[in-house]
Amino acid sequence: MSDSTEEPLFSVRDLVIDLYTEQVSVRAVDGVSLDVYPGEVLAVVGESGSGKTVMTLGPLGLLPEGVSVDIRGYAECSGQSLLARSGKELARLRGENFGIIFQDPISALNPMKKVGPQLASQAMRLRAVSKAQARVIALELLQRTGIPDPEGRYNCYPHEMSGGMLQRVMIALALAGNPKILIADEPTTALDATVQAQILELLQDIQRKENIAIVLITHDISVVAQMADRVAVLYAGRVAEYGTMEDVLTRPIHPYTKGLLSSVPDFRGQRTEPVTGIPGSPPDQSSLLPGCRFAERCPAAQHQCREKRPALVEMADVNKAHRVACPIAVSEGWGQSNDS
Ligand SMILES: Nc1ncnc2c1ncn2[C@@H]1O[C@H](COP(=O)(O)OP(=O)(O)OP(=O)(O)O)[C@@H](O)[C@H]1O
Ligand SMILES: [Mg+2]
User: Fold this and answer.
1) How far apart (Å, rounded) are the C-alpha atoms in residues 43 and 273?
2) Is the pTM of the predicted complex or chain greater than 0.90?
């Protein structure tokens, strides 16, 4: 993990993203501030619809098709602001800084084209190299991502590859521009357990050897336990809890984090209690009430929770890097170990 004196590579401050379709308007991200430091793995976790993808890709100008977007706040990468840019400028900043492994891999690869040439044209686009150099880079990328017989696989079509191999190609594609930050949106969800482990190992290897920061978006707490340095827990577009992986997974404080962890059996081979889950479902983000978004499902909720948005506060006495948006849990000392 990086030390905190380093400058963050990627930061968002008070980020608000509203999405509008003909039918609804949705506050997908509601006042999020986060930093990603060089070489670290920041895991973003939360239930489906909590805003993980929109929060991460929105500032890069990559938003769902067919919706209009209002994005406010501040976002920067390597000291350069990302918001209020032209599409062309944003594409350049994206290419220079980010590699993205999309949640939906189909959208990233052309099924009608061989994988090697697709990698080569991405390298040409992002690195301004010749066609011959791009071919060499593409072969290196296949090698780096653990694809056996890169020369042979260069000429394969996507449908000729297994799910695991294809995910390696997706990672190669994300690395084609020499990014400083890799955004991996559910990189293993569609894969079976053995292949999942291999892909995680590959990502870990890349992060360690090449010191690339990773924003790892996942539902899977065991993936967080294996890979993350820090964790941001998102609930209904807001950060509920943020801290080191150890703090958040073994000493969770926010009732939502506790619920999320109790719904995951045995995430590090430590747990024996039954899976309880979190009763209820996330709020409708198109008609939100004031106060804490989790209040309706929260076992600790009090009257005040429904009135005022809880601030994300530092755990001052214990660990300032651990932040929690629940004054009740913080004041009542809910922070006891989750191992007990
Ligand atoms: N194309 C869209 N049209 C309308 N609303 C959308 C669209 N895409 C996302 N949203 C809304 O934005 C919010 C955040 O969605 P987002 O995709 O970021 O969630 P997520 O945490 O990535 O979920 P998942 O785990 O399912 O990928 C949700 O309330 C969702 O309903
Ligand atoms: Mg998503």
Assistant:
1) 25
2) yes
Report the DSSP beta bridge partners of residue 97: none
Ligand number, closest to the Cα atom of 184: 2
Asked if residue 49 has its Cβ within 6 Å of ligand 1, the reply is yes
| pLDDT single digits (tens) 147-184 | 999 999 999 999 999 989 999 999 999 999 999 999 99
Which residue has 């150099």 as its token pair?
Answer: 133
For the Cβ of 23 lying below 6 angstroms from any atom of ligand 1, the answer is no
Q: Is 11 in the pocket of ligand 1 (CB under 6 A)?
A: no
Which residue's CA is the nearest one to ligand 1's atom 27?
48
Q: How far is the CA of 28 from the centre of ligand 1 (A)?
A: 7
* Tokens representing residue 126 in the block: 């992002």
Mutate to test the pocket of ligand 1, among 53, 71, 189, 221 (most ligand atoms within 8 A of CB): 53
Instruction: Outline where 156-254 has alpha helix (H).
Output: 163-175, 193-210, 221-227, 245-250
3-state SS of the chain: helix, strand, coil percent to 5?
Answer: 35, 25, 40
When pLDDT is cut at 50, 70 and 90, the band that residue 61 belongs to is very high
Which residue's alpha carbon is at the smallest distance from atom 11 of ligand 1? 28
Residues 92-146 have pLDDT tens digits of 999 999 999 987 766 788 999 999 999 999 999 999 899 999 999 999 999 999 9
- ∠ at Cα 129 (126, 132), nearest 5°? 125
